[in-house]
Amino acid sequence: MERPSLEINLPNTDEEGKLYVVDSLNNLNKLNACPDESQHAPDDVYENTGGTGENMTGSNTRNQCLFFITFILTLIVSLALVSFVIFLIIQTRNKMDQISSRLISEKKNIEELKKMNNMILKYLNQSGMKE
Fold first, then answer.
1. Residues near 13 by Cβ (< 8 Å), separated by ≥ 6?
2. pLDDT over 90, % of the chain
3. Is 39 contained in some domain?
4. Where is the segment annotated Disordered (predicted)?
5. Which of 15, 46, 90, 111 is most buried (CB neighbours < 10 A)?
6. What is the DSSP letter of 40?
7. Distance from CA of residue 35 to its chain's centroid?
């Protein structure tokens, strides 16, 4: 299949108008020559569309994709931070349990030492009175 010729007989217009038309035809030719890559075409291809909305559609899709990726990354980072905080809470609780068990055992030891001290004092008081 032959492609139709993109040559157009230009009426007598000023030089800037000719350049605009030729540039638009070149952009159209690029889009027709590379239909698979038209989605990845650089932004300068869309600059001369005359505001027809083609740039807005690509930009809108790109913005939605960036928003979605940013949202997913934010969720992953939040999940990691929450997991880290939960890990720290569990570690702190384990340390507190260890400290409280040590305090309880030391309290028992102190009470036993007090009892022994009272017994020794009673013995010394009793033996001192006999002499």
1. 21
2. 45
3. no
4. 36-56
5. 46
6. G
7. 35
> Residue 125: which domain range?
61-130
Question: CA-CA distance, 4 to 6, in Å (whole number)?
Answer: 6
| Tens-digit pLDDT profile for residues 84-93 | 999 999 999 9
User: What are the tokens at 67?
Assistant: 């928003």
When divided into structural domains, the chain yields a total of: 1
Is residue 106 included in any domain, yes or no?
A: yes
How far is residue 90 CA from its own chain's centroid? 24
Mean pLDDT of the chain, nearest integer: 78
Q: How far is CA 104 from the centre of its chain?
A: 45
Q: Is residue 110 part of a domain?
A: yes
Higher pLDDT among residues 7 and 123, named by residue: 123
Helix, strand, coil shares, percent, the chain, to 5: 80, 0, 20
DSSP string, 90-102: HHHHHHHHHHHHH
